[in-house]
Structure formats: C-alpha cells, structure tokens
Specification:
heterodimer; A: about 270 residues; alpha/beta; Rossmann fold; two-stranded antiparallel ribbon; 7 helices; globular; B: about 1000 residues; alpha+beta; Mth169, Chain: A; Phosphoribosyl-aminoimidazole Synthetase, Chain A, domain 2; 7-stranded mixed sheet; 43 strands
Chain lengths: ~270, ~1000
C-alpha cells in the first residue's frame, strides 16, 4: 500500500515535533520532520506530502503574538504553495502554536473561500497565565472536520498562555452555523463548559477549542492530541486500570483517542488519494 | 532615525497583564487601581522609510482582530503612566525576534548602528493614586533597577506627541579593546590588584601564582611571544579556574574535624574523594547500568540497550536573589545546556525545580534585596518562560519556606537528557579534543553580561556585589541551537562539545584544551553583541546560550551549512593543539600564554576547622507540650501551613507533558491537584520503559544534625521512587549542596566551624546512604555561600544564614510503565496498610515548627531494615498487588492520610491500634503517632482479594492493615487505639484548609 506522507514542521522554537511525528507513525503515516528553512530555501517541496502538521511550541518565542512570525515567514516564502496544497484537497492540522499560526496565516477559518484573511484571534488566557491542564472536549458531530470522524468526546491536555479564541460575534455565529466549531471545552458529560473556569481554561468564546475550514480539511485546535499517544498519558489511567480490574476487565491499551484523531486524517488521504 | 510603534489590546478586550497588575497592587500594597492598560512599545533605530514602518507595524506587530497600534503615542487615558524599559546591554529577547522577523519580511539586514528595543508603558486610572503609590508599583512590581529603568508621568506631565520619549537602550562603550600587564612585585601588590579587579584570588594562591610567573624558564618561554609579567587575561583565567564554583575548593579542601562530645578527631583530606567519588566508582564497577560519572557536565546511566539518559542539577541562587526572573530563567536555560554538552550531546526530555524562600508574608524590619513574595513570583515566572520555551517538560518540583532563606534564596534546577548509546558506532558518552581540531563557538554572542558571575556566586551577598552578573536567559536561541546540535551529533560532526556557563570561554576552552594539551584562541574573532570589550572580558564573559564544540577541519563546511539552515551563529575562534600551552591572541598580539598544567602547580588546598557539638551538648531537648484536645483543628491548621499547603498554582504554569511521554504527572488524584511522589516519563516514545524521577528537601533536620538531614533526605527520595513503581536496583543520585559559609571568622562567621562540621557529617551520611542503598552519585554540585547581610531598621546589617540544605534527586528506570501506580486510593472497599515503624521522631518536624520549637528527636534512618520493606514493596507493585502507594513525608501520617483522602475523592477510615510502633525513642502520644516524621514508611491501599498474598510478602516486616477506603462517606476518620475518633473531617474541610494559603493564586 502507498504510504501517506506527513510533514511536521520543525525549527525556530517549535517543540512538539517528536511526539507529533511519533503519533503520525502510529496512525499509519510516514513522518518527515522538516525545518521551516528547508521549505523557505526550496530544498523540500510541500507538494511531496499529503498532510502538513503545524505543531506546538514557541515559534520565535511567541514574543509578538503567538504564531505571528511563523505565519508571516511561511506566507512570505511559501504562501502560494500552501494555498495550492489546500486546493489539492490535502490536509493541514495546526495544534496549539500551529493553530495560532493557521489563524494568523488566514488558512483558518477560511470563510468565503478566503484563505488569507485574519478574522479569528487566539489571545491571552483570561486567567492571565500559562496553564497545563487536561480538558474534556465535546466534538461537533455535524462538523465536516475529517480528523474528528467518529469522535464524540476526547480528553487532551492544553498547555498554553494564549489560547482564548475570539472574533467578531458575527464570525463566531458563522462558524457555529457552518459547523466549523469542531471541539468545545466541556464537562465530563460532554456538556459545553459555558465559560466556566477551569472547564473552559482560557475564556474562549462559545467554549471553542478547535475549528476547521468549511471543507473540514484544515483543522486547528489548542489542546494537544499528540500528547495522548499512549494510554499512560491520560491523567486518570492508573485509576481506570484499578476500577476496570475489579470488574474483571482491563484497560484498552491499543489506540488512544489522541492517535485516533491522526488516523482519521491518514485514512482520509488513503481513501481520497490512493 | 528612531521610531516608536505602540501596540495595545483593543479597549473592549480583557487585558490579562493589566488585570494581574491591578490584582497584585491591591493584594501586595493595598493600592487601588480602577483601570489599567498595558501598551507595548517597539523602538526601531534604523533607516526604514514610512512605508516600511507601516508595513512592520501592520503585518508583524499588530493583530488586526485584537490590537490597535500607531506610529505615534496611543491616546489612552490615564491619571498616571509608568514606562518600563531595559537598561542598555540587558538581553531584550522580543527585540531580537522582532529584528529577525523584520529582516526576513523586508529582506533587509540591520547594520551595527541599527537596532530594535522593546519596552512597555502602563496607563493607570485611579482617583486616589498619588505619585508615591505609582513609584512603589514601578520600582517594586513592574521593574527591577538592576536590569530595568522606569519613568513616571502624571497626566499633566504627559506630552501627547512625544509620548514616553523612548531612546534606544543600546550599549556605547567608546573604548578601544586592550589588555594590561599586571605588576606582581609582591604578594601584597597582587592581593591589592585582586581586590581592585574583583578577581577574588585566595590569599594562599597568590604566592603560587607569583612563583609561576617569576620562574626563569617561564619568563624565557613567555619572552618568545612578547610577554613578561602576567596579563589581566591570564589572571582572570586563573581566578575563574580557582574559584570555588569551578574548582570546588570546599569539597576538595582539608577539614580538621573534632567531635567535642566523643573527642574524636580526624582529618578529612577531600570530602569529594572520600564521600562521593570512591563510593560512586565502587558502585559503578558493580552496576553495569552506570555509564559515565564524575567528569562530564552530567552523569550518564543506561536507559535501554540503545539509549542512555543524562542527569545533572544546579543552583542559581545569587543572581536570582537580585533579579529573580532573570536569575531563574538563566538558571533553567543554563542547566539545560549541561545535558546538551554531555558526551557528544543529548536531547533534553525533562527538568525540575526546587525553590527555598523566606516567608512570603514577611513584614519585619529586614530588607532583603527582593521581598520573598516578589522573589518567588519572579523565580516562578523565570523557570516558566525558560522551561516552557525550551520545549522541555517540568515534571517535578517543590517549594519550601523558611526564614533562613531570606538571606539568600535557593533556586534549584535539574535537567535530564537522552541520547543514543552509540553515534556512528562509537560510544556517545566518550568525547575528546585532538590537535588540529577547530574550536567553534555556536549560539549567542558575547557581551559584558555575567562578567565575574562565578566569583560573585562564591561570595556572600553584600551591598558591593556587582550587579552586572545578572542576565536574562534566551530559551529561543538555545532551542534553535539544541535542535541544530543534535543533527550535527547524528551526522558525526562533533568529537567534543561542552557548554559555556560559569567562567565562559575561560572554563570551556581552558578545560577542553587540557585533553588535547593545548590551544590557540583568536579572541578578535569571537562575535560580540557590541564593540569595546577588553580581551579579558571576552575571555570570561558568561553571556548565555553558547556551546564550545571541536570540529575537524574536513567537517567544517557541513557544520556551517547546518548552522546556517538552523539560523544559529557559529564561528571558528581557535584551534586545539598539543603544545602544552594555552595561547590566546587578539589579532597579532599574544595576550595570554601559560602552561596547560599551570593549575596543577601546587595550589594549596583550602583548610577548615570543623567542630561538632552534639545536639544534646548544644542544649536541645524535647519541648514540653501537652497533648492537644482538638486534633481536627490541629490537622486543618497543619494543612494550611505553607510547607504543606497546595502549591498547584506553580506546577500548573509549567508545561509538564510536552514531548508526549508523561506517565505519572506532578499532580495526581481524582482532581489532579495533589503532589505526586515522583514523576514518570517515557523519553523514548516507542518504548514501554519509563524514567522515574523525584527530589527531596528536608533542611529543617539540619537544625538538629545535618547527618540525619542527609540520610532522611535520601531515604525520602528513595521511598518516593519506590512508591510509583521504581526499581530499587537502579537508583541514580544527584546531590545539590547549599551551605552557609563554613570558613571560621571570629567576627563575621563565628559559627563557621560548626557549619563546617555539619558539612562533614552530611558527607559522611551521604556515603553511608549511597553505599547501603547502592546509589551511585551520577552528578552533583555545591553552592557554598548561602548567607545574606540584610539591612535592618536602624541602618545595621544583620547576617541571615540559610539552613544547611541538600536537594537530593533520584532517578530509576522502570521496565514497563503499565505497572506504575499513583498515590490516590481508587476503589471503595480497598484495604489501607501502613508499612514501616512509627517512632517518637518529632524533632524538627512540621508539628514542632508550628509551635516554633525544634526538639531533639530527629528521625533516624535504619537502612538495613528499610531496605527489606522497599524490596518487598517493589515486588508487590511488580506483581500488581498494589492499588495506590504513598511515601509518608513531611508532616507525618495524619497529613499524608489527608493527601490520600483528597487524592482519592473517597472516604478513609483508619484505626491506629495495630500501627507498627517502636517506643525506643520515647513515648508515642497521639500527636506523635499522627505527626512524627519517622522515615521508611508508606501508606498503601490494596484490593481485599490480594490481602493474603500481600501479607505473605510482608511477613516479618513492619506492616499492618489499619483500615479501608469507602464510598459510604467522604471523610477522613482516624481512630485512636481506644477507638476514640481523633480525626473526623470531611473532604470539603480538608480541601478548604489545603487550598487556603495559596488556593486563589493562578
């Protein structure tokens, strides 16, 4: 079978490339860690890949707005290549800093087929500080997002100081109406957090934690699905093991909901391109 | 041309930074700000035209959704405005990244006269605000005059067009670099020069230095390169190399130890050799997992067949005491270079912190350089930015409070890396420099920062301590370098690498050239932040984020190619030789030419008198306190004590799971808010193996005897590891000593001999514990001057010394992380066991502290007995018999049962009648049982079906089933042997107390 090639951006302070590459491998893809400057110099071409992952980290130290300089550099040097990548029906996922880069590139939310307009911003958490915390996410079952197919709920960690998603109310309304809101912060039952801290850890409007473009092929989220690549990543795993054991069961150690998200992307490419 | 761009959040958006300012102004100073907004200012000195400036403003610096900006001062109303900017020469990280972005965007390069500088101004509204308030906010909250400057404007003083009138904070030295020849006619003269130049030469070293430079053979060989008397570069080199920080003179020194009770007298010739090196080397022979110890930047242990792990730890106390944020970020970023410079270089996979500070609510007359509250805020933030932006998870950390740390606070930072055991078929932990290899410096540039940092940290803090050694670490530059160097390593381009930390090039080249036996260095090629540095300054500058690498000439092209791709600056600054000489040149002139073996030329060891007076002879006794009648109230007040209360807010600010390998997190339990015994991480994601890591700090016991402080600290670390499922046969240790000055001086340090004896005793304990538990010391450091001379009410200065402190870190490798366990009770009906013996060991306990008492009965460690418990427990965990496990530590049984209750979210009922006890150290009152800090103990919960097999494993070992976990109520109930309920508290009450002290901090 042909291999799905996933490109994981590296360099300039990005720092989740190892685990993002690992999780794509678990999902059945071949991972390629590529330095941003290898794209800028043209040594490596986007067209050779099926999925681009804009991963987490502190690109350029996040000194002038998270993901801003990364977006600017990519737009400046490979902006057209990115747009044609999108046109070819391939996939882009942006996680945390990568999501921040995608909104600054304008690839998200991609309203009215405009993939260059900055209309959503991801800004400082209401709590005023960086925060590492596992969150419950409720997925929008009507969303076109290809990454969240068959996912209803997921627990992933957030690790950010700037994760509050804001936009004009009109934009937010459109995102909701288009089902571009993919994930919302929620309680354990899957009911949206309604802004209550710390269920909603940053004060995002409408509890939004992830959005996609209208096609569902560009996806950005603040939580880190790649950090749930192994069953022992979940904060409650030791507890689950014991409670299941008493019921004569054991914990599913195969595929986490983190890996599942990436596998959806890989499967989509396999179905659509091969 | 100078232009200022002002950027602010749109008015309707929440300004989190301003909000935090308002909150702190109110809670710290009672100053009421009604409204605050923060404006970021980017000052550009360049020839950009208006069109370009607009583009920079709109495309790079302004988010159209959230921000407004202008090339003129933003018209935002205020009663008072505070502007804060860096002092010239202080590392301005946002300024540097703005420059990078602008260069890329406009395709222009900035010349030496151009630059970008960032600053901020805060617009404050408040009818009651007066200038005095605003000055307080500016100087005690928003800026630190060591690195920053501020200006205050009332609305009347504000010029709407001129704004804050920000000038570029650039360094202009206007100085032609030179070196000086120093006259050394007499010892006195050299001593005077040492004082004047802040060389901190030890008086006993001075004759040796003179003798060398006056030697006729030396003079003859120096003549050939045009030198006669020593140059300042040479003296600085010797000063760095001989400093306590680099040479560990204390641990290599001679101690004349006398026990005043037993009249035992002994001579200790080197604490390091006797108590650290020898036992560790013996264990290295015995344990094949120990790969490399005692010589490199960090120790190396085997992780699996293909990978080794690397561990080291440091303190960064002195700088953090003057500029907490800068000191701490420099500390964490600095310690992260050690694994990068170990062997051929390792990849960082985790870090940790330890903070020891004074009382955050202190309101007495003493004036530390920074109030403990402010210091802690700054330190937390520094490690946050340094750790998070390095992309390294901070998986463990502790914070403790004691008045002694107001003299000098402690900031411990620890780093772990992982590397393939072989690179291109050769062992990765071996490295060497060879003649003909080029000396390359990669990373940041050199400025005046950090000059004399090493010698300053080897002194007590005083009003004369130079502030210039405070820096701000740059994790961004270092992260780029980290990624780049790993690629170079894997391509086999690096035969040797080390970091530039204390002592700068003087240490990194000085030490690495010992291997090849010589070097030539061309100081004029070292890239500088600004012109005008003298040669000695370039040589000893501690500017951060730099590594020194040996590169073979044939590999230079590839090395430089990768360096350029990763946008890391690399420069060839010399060559390793085998001439036996350290030869430093600046252009055509030689400014240093000394023998590589100069440092072996019979420099005298430091000498100390150590007088031990036993606690009994010092008059310590158990305090007289009758049994309390309200144990519920007592326990709640214990949980509120800063050292036992929740410090979740600190841990949450640190990314503890980047790299995707988190198995046991620093906070556990049903609400993810109770500190874990240890963290477990998978550094190799494709593997089931994990690395367990923990740390302990029990400095209070030093009030009685530092010997027991040391044994208890190590025992606690071992227990914490075992509690998560670690392997007792693989425990690596890391000792970080922080001691007050031990050199006796009748006026300035009258108790120096006692503190020296405490050090000897701690080292003896270290050896005993390591031998008994078979813990090789993979790495270790010492920081010997944790004293401060604080200004008091009447202009006097009071010396405040810290407790004799050791942070002990421990590592273990776990074969299958699926068997790890956490400390939260998990299932109703599970049985609660206590393992280990409880004695009357309340000496220096948190319980006695709560009555401001010390006592005498410090906990003792019985290694042989405890070992049996640990092995049995390890076996029980391996056999999956244990549902939860927790080491009983500071605060004792009742406090740790409270933690477990909260972690489990379930009720706990415990009866003390069967508790394994030993009255050998005194009667066991109820309070002694509840709060004694006897070592070697655990609380364990197991499923009832495992009862028989579990008890069989513990047959003959001190252990007892005391109760059960229940979902019938959510209370902690502890019954005394006569069935009285000593403790009966609801979860809510426990949580309220646990979160009372710091719970509202985020």
């Amino acid at each position: 079978m042909k291999k799905v090639n996933a490109l994981i951006l590296t360099g300039f302070g990005l720092n989740c490339d190892d685990e993002t590459a690992h999780v794509f491998e678990l999902a059945g893809a071949t991972s390629h860690k590529v330095h941003i400057n290898a794209l800028v110099s043209g040594k490596i071409k986007l067209e050779d890949f099926h999925i681009i992952a804009f991963g987490g980290g502190f690109s350029w130290g996040d000194d002038h707005g998270a993901g801003v300089i990364q977006a600017l550099k990519l737009k400046n040097h490979v902006g057209k290549d990115l747009l044609s990548f999108v046109d070819q029906g391939k996939l882009i996922i942006g996680i945390c800093n990568g999501f921040q880069a995608l909104v600054n590139l304008g690839l998200l939310p991609g309203l009215d087929n405009d993939y260059t307009k900055r209309s959503v911003s991801i800004t400082f958490n209401d709590c005023g500080n960086f925060r590492d915390q596992w969150v419950h996410l409720a997925a929008n079952l009507k969303s076109p997002c290809v990454f969240t197919k068959d996912i209803q709920m997921a627990d992933y960690p957030i690790r950010h100081g700037e994760g509050k998603i804001i936009a004009d109310q009109k934009i937010i309304d459109t995102l909701v109406a288009n089902n571009q809101v993919v994930f919302q912060y929620a309680d354990t039952a899957g009911t949206p957090a309604k802004g209550v801290f710390p269920l909603n850890p940053n004060g995002s409007m409408e509890d939004i934690s992830g959005i996609c473009d209208p096609s569902g092929r560009i996806f950005g989220l603040m939580p880190h699905p790649e950090a749930y690549n192994h069953f022992t990543n979940h904060p409650d795993w030791t507890r689950k093991v014991q409670t299941l054991k008493r019921e004569g069961k054991s914990l599913d150690k195969e595929m986490t909901i983190g890996v599942k998200l990436f596998k959806n992307g890989v499967d989509y490419i396999q179905e659509s391109f091969f | 041309m100078i232009s200022c761009i002002e950027i602010a959040l749109k008015k309707e958006l929440r300004d989190a930074e301003a909000f935090s300012l308002k909150k702190k102004a109110d809670s710290y100073f009672g100053i009421n700000i009604q409204e605050a907004r923060c404006i970021h200012i980017v000052t550009i000195e360049s020839d950009l035209d208006l069109h370009q400036l607009e583009a920079v403003k709109d495309e790079i610096l302004t988010n159209p959704v959230t921000q407004v900006s202008s090339l003129n001062p933003l018209d935002i109303g205020f009663h008072w405005c505070i502007w804060v900017g860096f002092r010239p020469g202080v590392k301005d990280n946002p300024g540097a990244t703005a420059m990078e972005a602008i260069q890329d965007y406009l395709g222009k390069s900035f010349g030496p006269d151009e630059g970008i500088y960032t600053s901020k101004r805060y617009c404050l509204k408040g009818n009651a605000l007066v200038r005095e308030d605003v000055e307080k906010l500016a100087s005690e909250l928003l800026s630190n005059t060591i690195i920053q400057q501020f200006k205050i404007f009332s609305i009347e003083e504000w010029d709407k067009d001129m704004g804050a009138n920000v000038k570029p904070a650039k360094v202009i030295l206007d100085h032609t670099p030179c070196f000086e020849v120093v006259s050394i006619e007499s010892d006195e003269q050299l001593a005077k020069i040492s004082d004047e130049r802040n060389l901190a030469l030890n008086p006993r070293d001075i004759p040796v230095i003179r003798e060398y430079f006056l030697d006729s053979k030396v003079l003859e060989s120096r003549k050939e390169v045009g030198l006669c008397q020593p140059t300042d570069v040479e003296l600085e080199y010797i000063s760095q190399a001989r400093s306590d920080h680099c040479n560990h003179n204390t641990f290599q020194g001679i101690f004349r130890y006398k026990d005043m009770t037993s009249n035992e007298e002994s001579i200790e010739n080197s604490l390091f050799k006797t108590y650290i090196k020898e036992p560790t080397l013996k264990l290295k022979d015995k344990k094949d997992w120990v790969i490399s110890v005692l010589w490199d930047n960090a120790g190396v242990g085997r992780f699996d067949d293909e990978n080794n792990y690397v561990v080291t730890g440091e303190t960064h106390n002195s700088p953090s005491n003057m500029e907490a944020y800068g000191g701490a970020i420099t500390g964490i970023v600095g310690v992260y270079r050690d694994p990068m410079g170990t062997g051929l270089g390792s990849k960082l996979f985790m870090g940790s912190f330890g903070y020891c500070v004074g009382d955050v609510n202190y309101n007495g007359p003493l004036k530390p350089p920074l109030h403990p509250r402010r210091l802690l805020d700054g330190v937390i933030e520094g490690v946050k930015d340094g750790g998070n932006k390095s992309g390294v998870p901070t998986t463990f950390g502790q914070t403790l409070f004691n008045p002694g740390y107001m003299g000098k606070s402690l900031v411990f930072v620890t780093a772990l890396g992982i590397m393939p055991s072989k690179v291109k078929g050769k062992p990765s932990h071996e490295k060497k420099t060879s003649p003909g290899e080029l000396i390359v410096m990669s990373g940041g540039r050199v400025g005046k920062d950090g000059i004399h940092g090493v010698t300053a940290s080897s002194e007590s803090y005083s009003e004369n301590t130079p502030a210039g050694h405070v820096q701000i670490g740059d994790p961004y530059t270092q992260k780029k370098m980290h990624d780049f160097l790993l690629i170079c390593r894997d391509e086999g381009l690096i035969p040797f690498i080390t970091d530039n930390g204390g002592g700068g090039l003087s240490s990194s080249i000085g030490e690495s050239a010992m291997i090849s036996n010589g070097c030539v260095v061309w100081l004029d090629r070292v890239p500088l932040k600004y012109e005008g540095l003298d040669m000695w300054e370039i040589w000893v500058s501690e500017s951060q984020e730099r590594m020194t690498i040996a590169v073979k000439p044939e590999n230079l092209h590839r090395y430089m190619e990768l360096s350029a791709e990763h946008e890391v600056e690399s420069t060839v600054i010399g060559e390793y030789t085998d001439t036996g000489k350290l030869h430093i040149k600046y252009k055509d002139e030689t400014c240093a030419y000394v023998d590589m073996d100069l440092l072996d030329k019979g420099f005298p060891s430091w000498e100390f008198d150590a007088i031990w007076i036993s606690p009994e002879a010092r008059g310590l006794t158990e305090p007289v306190i009758s049994s309390p009648s309200d144990f519920n109230k007592l326990l709640l007040s214990m949980l509120e004590r800063p050292n036992l209360a929740s410090k979740e807010w600190i841990i949450r600010q640190y990314d503890h799971e980047v790299k995707g390998g988190s198995v046991i997190k620093p906070l556990v339990g049903v609400n993810h808010n109770i500190p874990s015994d240890a963290s477990v991480t998978r550094p190799v994601l494709a593997s089931q193996k994990g690395l367990a890591f923990t740390q302990s700090l029990l400095p209070w016991y030093s009030k009685i005897d530092a010997f027991h402080m040391m044994t208890c600290t190590i025992d606690e670390a071992v227990r914490r590891l075992i509690a998560v499922g670690a392997n007792f046969d693989h425990i690596g240790g890391l000792d970080n000593f922080c001691w007050p000055n031990i050199l006796f001086d009748p006026e300035n340090n009258p108790d120096g001999k006692f503190k020296a004896a405490q050090l000897v005793r701690a080292c003896r304990a270290l050896k005993e514990a390591c031998e008994k538990y078979e813990i090789p010391l993979l790495s270790g450091k010492d920081s010997m001057y944790v004293d401060g001379h604080l200004e008091g009410e009447f202009g006097e200065r009071v010396k405040v010394s810290a407790l004799e402190t050791v942070q002990f870190s421990a590592t273990s490798v776990i074969d299958d992380v699926a068997k790890c366990i956490s400390m939260d009770p998990k299932v109703s009906g599970d049985l609660v066991y206590v393992l280990g013996v409880t004695r009357n060991e309340l000496g220096a306990s948190e319980y006695y502290e709560s009555f401001h008492k010390t006592g005498l009965n410090v906990p003792h460690v019985d290694f042989d007995k405890f070992k049996v418990i640990y092995r049995a427990l390890q076996k029980a965990i391996e056999n999956e018999l244990v549902a939860s496990c927790h080491a009983i530590a500071r605060g004792g049984l009742a406090v740790h049962l409270s933690y477990m209750t909260m972690a489990g979210g379930l009720g706990l009922e415990v009866n003390l009648s069967d508790l394994p006890k030993d009255k050998g150290r005194g009667r066991l009152s109820n309070e002694a049982v509840l709060f004694s800090e006897s070592a070697g103990r655990f609380i364990v919960t197991i499923s009832p079906e495992n009862k028989t097999i579990f008890e069989k494993l513990f047959k003959g070992i001190a252990s007892a089933c005391l109760g059960f976990v229940t979902d019938q109520h959510n209370r902690l109930k502890i019954f005394s042997p006569d069935k009285d309920a000593l403790i009966d508290l609801s979860m809510k009450e426990l949580e309220k107390a646990f979160n009372k002290t710091f719970g509202d901090m985020i």
